[in-house]
Automatic annotation (TrEMBL), chain A:
Residues 95-305 form the ABC transmembrane type-1 domain. The chain crosses the membrane at residues 12-30, 101-122, 134-157, 182-200, 236-262, 282-308. The lineage of its organism: Bacteria, Bacillati, Bacillota, Bacilli, Bacillales. Its main location: membrane. The keyword Electron transport does not apply. It holds the Pfam family BPD_transp_1_N. Keywords: Cell membrane, Membrane, Transmembrane, Transmembrane helix, Transport. It comes from the Bacteria. SUPFAM superfamilies: MetI-like (SSF161098). Belongs to the binding-protein-dependent transport system permease family. This is ABC transporter permease subunit.
Length: 316, 539
């Protein structure tokens, strides 16, 4: 297993290199220029050109790429063109906020999706199934930013139960305070995934309930809930693990929207600002980081797979 | 299964705990800026200024750099206004002295002597002296440093010199007469020499992360992506500020920021005119529209490959086809938030006059002019920033109104980066129309780069040798009466030539919680909201 993990990790290097080339090319092909993000009409052309030169933006694109690679190898991922701070430092500073939000959202989605999906599948076409299906449809169709504003309005403005935005009350350093601030963004991010998971688990449950081992359990007089949660669940969990690995990309995309709306100080909102300012070292840093998460997410899913079902053997 | 679920619950709690703990690396502080509920904001107003309390200002992004030599974005400039004191400020032609006690031009107007107030200190207790002023100007002028302000300190191609006379006196030596020099000096917020003197790259210096200024509030803590808090500077030369602290809360989404405002989590916030009614309905806020000295205008690109707008008559005809009042209603919802504009100067500028020739709202005359210019079946390309509501609304209006005079307008929607790149590229020839705006400051010389032949920001490619001469003469004319004549004439000529269609002097709308007083004394100011935050108090 250890050898396999090392081999898989080594395989990520050429993949990340490829991603970096594609990402850099796309940024350079896109219209815009980081200097333009701070140009004002009363700035003189000489100043604009001097700043562009000092930032190395007048060099050919391939040289800019190699300069970035050099910075990355040195371990700082380059410097932001806008605020001139090392990119790695900015990512690491915001990583805990994003990890906390993503981790709790995915966990919340799984906690709720498993029983809801099982119950819906076991009660196919009954009112419970229809209700859960309806909620899933809403979850799939509703735009995250709209849901965020709606919940914010309801829980912060109308009910005064939760803070509307940010990660903490100003000047307060308390995990409980962060938990309180995290409820709304975590719920919004989780809701988008919940819907997809529920539908997947529901159809998987329906398929499992037709299997012979379920009929045997019924014949032995086992309770429906016992069959569902003790026997069917094990089989349903397997595709959920795959789904989790595949969700990493969507999770990053969802986090960008959620973090921006809730002013959650994570990597998503940092990326949004970088894209607006065409700050390519930051965009590159975040893209590589997200790609790494996606690759690692899938690797962890594969490993978990082999734990849940020992019949599955991993091959590098 | 139960074990599994409780495991996941623990995971949820743990992940949130991790993010909470790992961000708690800054010094703990008292809950000075704790959010207030709307009930709290409805307390009865007290008439006398009180000391204590905090103010939370909503800002749209993180500050880029907390160093006034490099701040170009609205948020950094806003925070710097509280952290760093200026030498002096100018409002409606009147000077208010801050660090400076006086600024006196020599008889030949080639030297300006600046006297500093006595007993000035930086936030760390060091004395603020003439050395700091000279160091600030020298670092702006240093080509290796990236200050945006450098070109402002060149007259012709020669640099202004700052020379220390004594600890409290600096002489600014100009290579030639330049009455606009005072407007350049207004932008200077001195930085401390003792902090930065050995830094090779001040812009990248880690010392910018813990700024030492001389303004009414000093740096306390910054949580990237969340907020930045300043605390009262007791030795502020203008008198001890009333508030204990000021926090700039980062709220990137406008809708969310408005909700936080209503919830009392933000006390001061820019408002889009369309949101004013909602916020006003809460009855918890003063709605304060004020002029930013900004002109919104439709730009005619005379350099387009069709050459259509190179003819003055065509530009005048296009202007006649439009109505300022309708445009203001379309883009800004009400004339309360925008005053009709006719001159290229803004009302805060010296020698401004709106009594100039105007082309407005006369479709019949527009058709006549187009015919006399020999233009029929004119087709124009209008570049629009996607997602910019005002631009989109105005572009549709312009398309419809120009169609009525026989001009077809093709709208080209593009991403804002692409739009800016095309707009500021003086070689762009593939479009004719664009909506934009500028804030150029109070001295009319600043507008020279927009309206003189081949100058760096002359995006409409306007060229009139008489205007060139007037603008160049105005830059070096020391006599205010003569200068007034020059710029009055220039405004008239530019209005007659119609290189742009001035639409409105737009206003910025700010909502301030009724829980705060001293707003008038703090002075509402373009870009940075308040000129002097030390005057604001909690009622």
């Amino acid at each position: 297993m250890r050898q396999l993990i090392v081999r898989r990790l080594l395989q990520t290097l050429p993949m990340l290199f490829f991603v970096s080339v594609v990402c850099f090319t796309m940024i350079k092909l896109a219209p815009g220029d980081p200097v333009l993000s701070f140009v004002t009409p009363n700035m003189h052309a000489d100043d604009i050109e001097r700043i562009r030169h000092n930032l190395g933006l007048d060099k050919p694109a391939y040289i800019q790429y190699f300069i970035w690679i050099k910075e990355m190898v040195q371990g700082n991922f380059g410097y932001s063109l806008i605020n001139h701070q090392p990119v790695l430092g900015q990512i690491l500073e915001r990583l805990p906020a994003t990890a906390g939000l993503m981790g709790s959202a995915i966990a919340l989605a799984v906690i709720l999706a498993i029983p809801l999906g099982l119950v819906a599948g076991a009660n196919r076409n009954r009112w419970v199934d229809k209700l859960i299906n309806f909620i899933s449809y809403v979850g799939i169709s509703i735009p995250l930013f709209w849901l965020a504003i709606l919940l914010m309005y309801l829980f912060a403005i109308k009910l005064h139960l939760l803070p509307s935005m940010g990660m903490r009350t100003i000047g307060v350093e308390s995990p409980l305070d962060v938990l309180k601030h995290g409820i709304l963004p975590c719920s919004v991010l989780a809701f988008g995934f919940l819907a997809g998971y529920v539908r997947y688990i529901r159809s998987s449950t329906i398929g499992q309930l037709k299997e012979e081992y379920v009929q045997i359990q019924y014949a032995f007089g086992s309770k429906k809930s016992t069959i569902l949660f003790r026997h069917v669940l094990k089989h349903v969990l397997l595709p959920v693990i795959t789904l989790l690995g595949m969700s990493m990309g969507d999770l990053v995309a969802g986090a960008i929207v959620t973090e921006t709306v809730f002013s959650w100080p994570g990597i998503g909102s940092l990326g949004m600002t970088a894209v607006k300012g065409m700050d390519y070292p930051v965009i590159m840093g975040i893209t590589l980081f997200s790609s790494l998460m996606l690759i690692l997410g899938n690797m962890v899913a594969d490993i978990l797979y082999s734990f849940v079902d020992p019949r599955i053997k991993l091959k590098g | 299964m139960r074990k599994g679920i409780s495991g996941v619950v623990i995971l949820v709690l743990l992940t949130l705990m991790i993010s909470a703990c790992s961000n708690g690396n800054n010094a703990a502080s008292t809950n000075a800026g704790a959010s207030q509920t709307p009930a709290e904001t409805q307390q009865p107003a007290a008439s006398e200024p009180k000391d204590g309390g905090s103010l939370i200002i909503g800002v749209a992004s993180d500050p880029v750099v907390l160093n006034p030599n490099y701040a170009g974005d609205r948020v950094s400039l806003t925070i710097d206004q509280a952290l760093y004191a200026p030498l002096f400020q100018v409002n409606k032609g009147e000077k208010t002295f801050y660090l400076a006690e006086s600024l006196t031009p020599s008889e030949d107007n080639l030297t300006y002597t600046l006297k500093l107030k006595d007993g000035l200190t930086w936030h760390d207790g060091e004395k603020l002296t003439a050395d700091d002023i000279v160091f600030t100007i020298d670092s702006i002028l240093d080509e290796k440093q990236n200050s945006f302000l450098r070109a402002n300190f060149l007259i012709g191609d020669q640099a202004i010199k700052a020379v220390k006379v004594d600890d409290l006196t600096v002489d600014f030596q100009l290579p030639q007469v330049s009455p606009a020099f005072e407007a350049t000096l207004v932008q200077v917020f001195p930085i401390p020499k003792h902090i930065f003197e050995n830094e090779t790259d001040i812009e990248k210096s880690t010392k910018n992360a813990a700024p030492v200024g001389s303004g009414p509030f000093k740096f306390k803590e910054y949580k990237a992506g969340e907020y930045l808090t300043l605390e009262r500077f007791d030795n502020y030369f203008g008198g001890k500020p009333h508030l204990d602290s000021v926090t700039y809360r980062i709220a990137k989404d406008t809708n969310a920021a408005n909700l936080a405002l209503q919830n009392g989590e933000i006390n001061v916030q820019y408002l889009d005119p369309k949101d004013v009614a909602t916020i006003q309905a809460t009855n918890n806020f003063e709605i304060l529209p004020y002029s930013e000295g900004r002109l919104a205008y439709l730009m005619f690109n005379a350099n387009s490959d069709t050459g259509a707008l190179a003819k003055k008559e065509v530009r005048q005809a296009l202007s006649l086809a439009l109505s300022r009042d309708e445009l203001i209603q379309t883009a800004y919802t009400s004339s309360e938030y925008a005053d009709p504009a006719k001159s290229f100067l803004t009302p805060d500028a010296l020698y401004f006059t709106n009594e100039v020739t105007t082309f407005d709202n006369d479709a019949a005359k527009a058709k006549e002019l187009l015919a006399s210019a020999g233009e029929s079946n004119l087709k124009l390309r209008y570049i629009v920033q996607s997602g910019n509501k005002a631009q989109e609304a105005i572009s549709l209006y312009v398309q419809q109104k120009l169609k009525a005079v026989g001009v077809e307008v093709e709208l080209q929607n593009m991403d804002s980066s692409a739009w800016v790149q095309k707009f500021i590229d003086l070689k762009s020839t593939d479009y004719e129309l664009a909506l934009t705006g500028y804030i150029m400051g109070y001295d009319p010389d600043a507008y020279r780069i927009l309206f003189t032949t081949d100058s760096s920001s002359n995006y409409s490619h306007y060229s009139n040798s008489e205007v060139d001469k007037l603008m160049n003469d105005g830059a070096g004319e020391a006599d205010p009466a003569q200068r007034a004549e020059i710029y009055k004439k220039a405004q008239e000529l530019v209005a007659e030539d119609a290189p742009i269609y001035p639409i409105a002097y737009t206003k910025t709308v700010v909502a301030v919680s009724k829980n705060y007083g001293g707003i008038d004394e703090a002075v509402l100011k373009p870009v940075v909201i308040f000129e002097d935050l030390s005057k604001i108090y909690q009622k």
